[in-house]
Specification:
Largest sheet: none
Helix content: 55-70%
Structural class: mainly alpha
Number of strands: 0
Shape: globular
Length: about 170
């Protein structure tokens, strides 16, 4: 994307604040009694950075960013690495954080904030997809048909099957 102008942002801020709220709740409320949920939450917290860290580097390296622009201002669709698994890896990672913290605390406030975060990351992703289609056209539309929006399990399986087919 050649410019940050008209890039949707408001929904992201609501989701980010809700995600931070789940972190704060994790620090101040008692842990929930269900140890299985706490362990599952820790697994999600461990997985989350695998989704939200790599995009910074992948977009800078492969996105053909114009001089002086942010890492998110790509002029080419990036479909490798985690972007070959899901279209919005950062939002998947942030959603995993919010859900992971909610699973650790098992508190109604944490769950409400996590669901708010997930909903707003989803709405932000929809808005960004419209933006990306306007900016990148048919290349992004084709990418949307190949790579799932958030389903990282399905995306990972699809990616493995595709690599297996190519290696034959």
């Amino acid at each position: 994307m050649s410019s940050e102008e008209n890039r949707p942002q408001a929904l992201w801020w609501v989701a980010a604040i809700a995600t931070v709220g789940t972190l704060v709740a994790d620090l101040v409320v008692e842990r929930g009694a269900n140890s299985g949920l706490r362990i599952a939450g820790m697994i999600l917290l461990f997985l989350a950075p695998l989704f939200f860290v790599p995009p910074f580097f992948l977009l800078m390296k492969h996105g053909r960013i114009e001089a002086g622009q942010s890492y998110s201002c790509t002029t080419k669709v990036v479909d490798r690495g985690v972007y070959g698994v899901v279209r919005h890896p950062q939002y998947v990672g942030y959603a995993l954080l919010a859900i992971g913290f909610a699973m650790r605390t098992q508190h109604i406030i944490s769950w409400a904030l996590a669901m708010l975060a997930v909903a707003f990351f989803y709405l932000q992703a929809l808005a960004e997809e419209r933006f990306c289609v306007r900016q990148l056209g048919a290349e992004y539309a084709a990418y949307m048909k190949q790579v799932p929006r958030f389903n990282f399990v399905g995306g990972f399986i699809r990616s493995l099957l595709e690599k297996t087919r190519r290696s034959r």
